[in-house]
Every structure is written in C-alpha cells, then in structure tokens.
Write a structure and sequence with these properties.
Helix 11 packs across helix 12. This protein starts with 5 loop residues before the first helix and ends with a strand. Helices cover 37% and strands 24% of the residues. The longest helix has 23 residues. It has two domains: 207 residues, Ribonuclease E inhibitor RraA/RraA-like (Glucose Oxidase, domain 1), CATH 3.50.30.40; 96 residues, no CATH class. It contains twelve helices and 14 strands. The strands form three sheets. Strands 1, 2, 3, 4, 5, 6, 7, 8, 11 and 12 form a ten-stranded mixed β-sheet that branches. It is elongated. With 314 residues, the chain is α/β, with parallel strands linked by helices.
Length: 314
C-alpha cells in the first residue's frame, strides 16, 4: 500500500510550481495565507467556481468552537470499513515506515505548524471517532494555528472544548475508533461533496469548509481584490444615486465607469491596497473585445444569448 509517498503527492499536485515540504506537499506561503484570512469565504469561492472547481465547499458540519475560523494547509487521509487483508497491508506499510500506534496517530504525528488534518471517515460516527481529547491536544501542539476537518466522528467533546484549536466534524460518540483502517494518506480526500488534495488551503467559518487548490491561491487573491475594489468604488455611488444596481452588477463596465474606478484607486487613500493590479482584461471587454467579454461573462457565471439579445443569468 502506498501511503504519504512523495511521487504520488507530486503527481496529484503537479500544477503547483512553488515551494514544497520534504514529502512533496505544496507549501503555500504564510504571507498568502494571511491575505486569505482578510477575505470573505464568498470572495474566495467565486474564482474557484468560475475556474471549474465547483466541488470545493462543504457545509453541514459541526464545529468545536462556534465562530472560530480555520485556515491552514491540508494533510489528507481517507479511511474505509475494516477488511483483514487491507488492514494487514496498511499496518505492514506503516511498520515499514517506522510509524507507531493506530492509523489516525500516523497522520497526526506528521503534522507541522499551520497544518489542518482533512479526514474522510465515510461519515462514520459510532466507532468512527478520529480524534478525542488526547489527539486534539496533539493537533494543537503540532499545528499551533491549524486544526482538523473530519467527515466522521469525535469523542471526549468536553475535553476537546478546552483546547484552543478548531475542529469540524459530523457527530459525537463515546466509542474509540474501531473497525476501519486508513487507505489513503496525502492523496485525494472527499469531504461530503467536496474534494481536497494535500497542500490545499482549508478555509473554515460558520458556513462550512472551503478547499483552495494551492495553484489557484494567487488567482483567488487577485480576483477577490478586484471584487473588493469594485465594491469600494461603487457602494458610495450607489448610495448617492450616481449608479444603479444594474450598472454596478454588470460584468462588463463601460470605459467611462472603469476609468473612474481606476482613477479612484490611484488617488484615494482607501484604494492604496489595490494599486498596480492588471485590469487589461476588463479594459478589453469594456472596448468590446468579444473574447474578453466572453471571459468576463464566464467569470460572473452568465450565459450569453443570441447576438443582440444581451445575457441570461444562470
């Protein structure tokens, strides 16, 4: 059985070209993660969705600390119902790598600062408790600011709530983890309807968890900054009646309006954060370039109708 193998991680995350951990897991910089912390989950979700990553979010999870957000680099694992030959294979692999204890301990013992365990326990709660008080303490000690997302159960909830680390989970049961074994470690991991790869950035809030592919972090930040810049410029003008909601919500702004936006960002202190951004696509769309217009419609998830008929919202 192949578990936490560098070659496999490199293969699954081949679009990432930046720094990596020794086992090949993508290492998005701390600085980029700090920027993501300033964005709303919807601002982060939007460019993922229009880029084709439409299964990156999962709700319907309980949280250890309501209201506490979670950000970090994913370490993934998947479990399956127990089968003797598969279990023997898993533990022989673990022994060969010098791993001690049970499968969930192998994963937690690999964590470093800023990591988030993402575990698919196939929604198993009874005898599906991935962590309790001891292992949650270990997660906090190893990751400092990280946590866990478990598509399954936890135990020792009263103990866990005394630990300053965020954990998302499906249910609680007093039983220990039994009748299952690990089948994947730092490979693709399904959490409900979402898919996570090792090195993805986990973004959790009261809505649920969002998995940002490492190679799309820059795209997410750029798109979110543009959305923020548009809102910063447009909201006061909406209140003043200068523009209508139809003007502001249009995916393609006319040249005059787009020019006013960029001028505002350059001269107003509030726009300092957004200076130097590339607005060439928006300019081409404003000037009627068909390919640019089509791309802007795609980014706003709008389907064009026949020529001259405008657009239809999906």
């Amino acid at each position: 059985m192949r578990l936490n193998e560098k070659e496999d991680i490199l293969d699954w995350t081949s679009q990432w070209t930046g720094e990596r951990f020794p086992n090949g897991r993508p290492k998005v910089s701390d600085e980029k993660i700090e920027i993501l912390k300033t964005l709303t989950q919807e601002e982060i979700w939007h460019p993922l969705y229009f880029s084709g990553y439409r299964f990156a979010f999962q709700g319907n999870l309980r949280t250890l600390h309501p209201g506490k957000k979670l950000f970090g680099r994913a370490v993934t694992c998947c479990f399956a119902p127990q089968r003797p030959d598969v279990r023997r294979n898993a533990f022989e692999t673990g022994a060969g790598k010098g791993w001690r204890g049970d499968c969930n301990q192998w994963v937690i013992d690999s964590l470093v600062e800023g990591d988030v365990v993402v575990c698919d326990l196939y929604d198993k709660v009874f005898k599906g408790t991935f962590v309790g008080g001891n292992l949650t303490t270990a997660i906090q000690a190893r990751t400092r600011t990280g946590g866990a997302v478990v598509w399954g159960g936890v135990r020792d909830l009263e103990q866990m709530r005394k630990i300053d680390v965020q954990v998302y989970f499906r249910g609680v049961d007093p039983t220990p983890i039994r009748d299952c074994q690990i089948v994947s470690f730092n490979g693709p991991c399904r959490i409900g309807e979402a898919l996570c790869l090792p090195g993805d950035i986990v973004v959790g809030n009261e809505n649920g968890v969002l998995f940002v592919p490492s190679h799309l972090v820059d795209t997410v930040i750029e798109n979110a900054f543009k959305m923020q810049a548009r809102d910063l410029f447009a909201f006061p003008r909406l209140r003043a009646g200068v523009y209508t909601t139809a003007d502001v919500d249009a995916p393609v702004w006319p040249p005059k309006m787009l020019g006013e936006l960029i001028d505002f960002l350059e001269r107003d202190e509030a726009g300092k954060r957004y200076r130097g951004m590339d607005w060439s696509l928006e300019w081409r769309a404003a000037q009627g370039d068909e390919a640019a217009v089509e791309e802007m419609l795609r980014r706003f998830d709008i389907e064009p109708l026949s020529p001259g008929e405008g657009v239809a919202f999906l």
